[in-house]
């Protein structure tokens, strides 16, 4: 089978690149094992929240303070700005509506009641430009009886510090009785499967009963696993603002965003090979000719003119730490890392960790290298790139989406 581009990895970065290329009528395949960081997403996407420990108000302006090896510096500030403006439009095509812009951080409400700076946030989640001047001030925080992955008291404390008037309420529905028999069943994804159809009308009645004079309802983000239909319907039934707060994974809003992006990709003609992984590649000179997967076997190589590696970092095993080396397991690509094991980590658990900046070596165009030789038609994107500490910087989703669009743009040009 022959494609224009094959993308290895179907998380946020791989899907964004796939949608961009498929939108340009390219024949694209995404090969994914199904493990994605989107399943743990807060529903917000950070471009750059901190530099050297200091909070950032203008992410684009702060890019100049990053190390030269950082992925953003390779792309350039003006290109990052332009690509960042494209991200909400791409998501909107999938039906995922995002609020925010790259020039000014807004603030999202975290599960612990803190207000964290971010770039883009799904429109149904609790976020605003200035937490002290939100459009609503009188809040009711609603939880489901027996649901332990949501913390109303923490939220109330954080909201009260910003001048909100708050109270906490608990609701229940007969449809949730079975789930409450076990805390292992009373989880976000399981609740989302129940809160649909006529059950939403019962939930709306409960929300109206407990909300009183509140002008906003804060509740856990456990509604709408595959589309916006359920959240849209509940908003129609309840004549008050409803804002959702992320919960402990798995993330319903993250799974929903992934499902909607995947449907868009497939509607554009993309091939989505779920539950498979690449085990080897066939190289000729300085080009990758084809890849072979676990499911299709040795006798069915997948050929392409261009390839994109979007397998992530250590979390998704895009990088693997061995006692004597850090390796990229699919092709054995060159990796940017420290020479010795003691240099890889900081004994101060909360301090900067060197291994967070490890990743595959790339040139200025994100083309990878193998044995010191640049592979002309294989680019890396997202968390597998070297040079960024996404956790400390609050840059993970930004790097995933911006490098994906940049790589797709380079392929198209």
Descriptive report:
With 413 residues, the protein is an alpha/beta fold. Helices cover 29% and strands 25% of the residues. The protein contains twelve helices and 24 strands. The chain has helices at 12-23, 59-62, 71-75, 77-93, 152-161, 177-180, 188-194, 199-211, 229-237, 252-267, 390-393, 396-412, and strands spanning 2-8, 28-32, 44-45, 50-51, 54-55, 98-99, 106-109, 115-118, 120-122, 127-128, 138-144, 165-171, 216-220, 241-245, 271-274, 278-284, 287-293, 302-309, 320-322, 325-327, 335-336, 359-360, 367-370, 373-380. The strands form seven sheets. Strands 1, 2, 15, 16, 17, 18, 23 and 24 form an eight-stranded mixed β-sheet that branches. A four-stranded parallel β-sheet has the order 12-11-13-14, with helices on both faces. Helix 1 (12-23) links the parallel strand 1 and strand 2. Helix 1 (12-23) packs parallel to helix 12, helix 4 (77-93) packs across helix 12 (396-412) and helix 8 (199-211) crosses helix 9 (229-237). The protein is globular and about 70 Å long.
Secondary structure layout:
Blueprint: E1 2-8, H1 12-23, E2 28-32, E3 44-45, E4 50-51, E5 54-55, H2 59-62, H3 71-75, H4 77-93, E6 98-99, E7 106-109, E8 115-118, E9 120-122, E10 127-128, E11 138-144, H5 152-161, E12 165-171, H6 177-180, H7 188-194, H8 199-211, E13 216-220, H9 229-237, E14 241-245, H10 252-267, E15 271-274, E16 278-284, E17 287-293, E18 302-309, E19 320-322, E20 325-327, E21 335-336, E22 359-360, E23 367-370, E24 373-380, H11 390-393, H12 396-412
Parallel strand pairs: 1-2, 1-18, 2-15, 11-12, 11-13, 13-14, 18-24
Antiparallel strand pairs: 3-9, 4-5, 6-9, 7-8, 7-10, 16-17, 17-18, 19-20, 21-22, 23-24
């Amino acid at each position: 089978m022959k494609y224009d581009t094959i993308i290895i990895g179907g998380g946020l970065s791989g899907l964004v690149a796939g949608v961009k290329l498929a939108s340009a009528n390219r024949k694209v395949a995404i090969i994914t094992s199904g493990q994605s960081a989107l399943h743990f997403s807060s529903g917000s996407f950070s471009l750059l929240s901190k530099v050297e420990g200091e909070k950032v108000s203008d992410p684009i302006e702060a890019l100049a303070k990053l190390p030269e090896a950082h992925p953003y510096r390779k792309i350039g500030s003006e290109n990052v700005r332009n690509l960042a403006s494209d991200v909400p439009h791409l998501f909107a095509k999938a039906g995922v509506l995002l609020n925010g812009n790259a020039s000014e951080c807004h603030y999202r409400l975290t599960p612990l009641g803190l207000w964290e700076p971010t770039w883009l946030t799904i429109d149904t989640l609790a976020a605003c430009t200035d937490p002290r001047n939100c459009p609503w001030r009188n809040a009711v925080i609603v939880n489901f009886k027996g649901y332990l992955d949501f913390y109303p008291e923490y939220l109330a404390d954080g909201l009260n510090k910003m001048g909100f008037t708050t109270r906490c309420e608990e609701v229940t529905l007969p449809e949730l009785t079975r789930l409450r028999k076990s805390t292992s069943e009373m989880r976000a994804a399981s609740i989302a499967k129940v809160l649909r159809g006529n059950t939403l009308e019962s939930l709306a009645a409960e929300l109206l009963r407990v909300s009183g004079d509140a002008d906003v309802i804060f509740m856990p983000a456990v509604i709408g696993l595959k589309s916006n239909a359920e959240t849209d319907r509940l908003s129609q039934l309840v004549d008050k603002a409803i804002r959702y707060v992320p919960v402990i994974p798995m993330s319903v809003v993250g799974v929903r965003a992934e499902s909607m992006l995947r449907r868009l990709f497939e509607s554009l003609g993309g091939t989505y090979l779920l539950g498979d992984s690449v085990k080897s590649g066939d190289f000729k000179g300085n080009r990758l000719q084809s890849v072979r997967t676990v499911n299709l076997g040795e006798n069915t190589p997948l050929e392409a003119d261009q390839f994109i590696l979007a397998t992530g970092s250590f979390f998704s095993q895009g990088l693997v730490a061995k006692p004597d080396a850090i390796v990229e397991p699919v092709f054995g690509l060159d990796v940017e890392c420290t020479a010795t094991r003691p240099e890889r980590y900081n004994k101060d658990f909360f301090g900067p960790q060197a291994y967070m900046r490890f990743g595959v070596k790339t040139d200025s165009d994100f083309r990878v290298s193998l044995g010191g030789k640049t592979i002309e038609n294989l680019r890396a994107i997202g968390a597998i790139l070297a040079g960024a500490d996404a956790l400390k910087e609050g840059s993970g989703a930004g790097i995933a989406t911006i490098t994906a669009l940049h790589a797709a743009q380079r392929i198209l040009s």
